[in-house]
Amino acid sequence: MTPVLELRSVSAAYGPFRALFDVSLTVNPGEVLALVGSNGVGKTTVARVASGLVAPTSGSVFLGGVDMTGRKPYRFARAGVAHATEGRSVFATLSVEDNLTLSFARARGRKGVRSGLEIAYELFPVLERRRRQAAGTLSGGEQRMLSMARVMVEVPKILIADELSLGLAPKITMELYASLERLRAEGTALLIVEQHVAHALRLCDRVAMLDHGTVSWTGSGTEATSVVAQFLEPSH
Ligand code: ATP
Question: Which comes out higher in pLDDT, residue 153 or 220?
Answer without folding.
Answer: 220
